[in-house]
Amino acid sequence: MNDETEMRQKLVRMGTLLYTRQLAHGSAGNLSVRLDDGSILITPTNSSLGFLEAERISKLTPDGELISGDRPSKEYFFHLAVYEERPAAQAIVHLHSTYSVAISCLCHEQTDDVLPPLTAYHVMRVGKLPLVRYFRPGDRALADEVRKVSRDNRSMLLANHGPIVSGASIEEAVYAYEELEETAKLYFLLGDRKTSPLRAEEIAEINRAFPN
Fold it and tell me: What GO MF terms are annotated (predicted)?
């Protein structure tokens, strides 16, 4: 089994997992992986992550030209921006899951990190979660903002839209996305109760023990 065939099948499996877990719905959201030759596999436009077909997944050049498969997600351009800025990123998950999108709709006084570090696993897998200002779906200007935020962050939240999470593998990106959604749930469950998020020194210790 060659790398591309394996990655296509992994995208199908992960899409099914996310759809089954109700993190993806309808035809919203997209997944991508970067192959060893630099080309990108990304889920097609208007496709449901729960019903992907491996041979129809889009294959793009690093510049976004379609090589094979169906037309790519209309949001492929911000995937390319992340890959361009983060050489270690090999996979990206972007979904519209309920609790994370709810966080993106709130007013935030500070936008450099919009979820508190409630758990060590959120710090380890998600890191800081900056909020990117609103752009309409498909607006190419979003790519510049995503590229800029990607320089220092492996995760981000698009205002009134949803998260973008990158990882060294599709599995790592999916697990990080799941952790993000669970932290968002905790945030709403805790509500206005007094909480004790991790202190700066505790976060620094985690980052030393588990570097990105």
Answer: aldehyde-lyase activity; metal ion binding
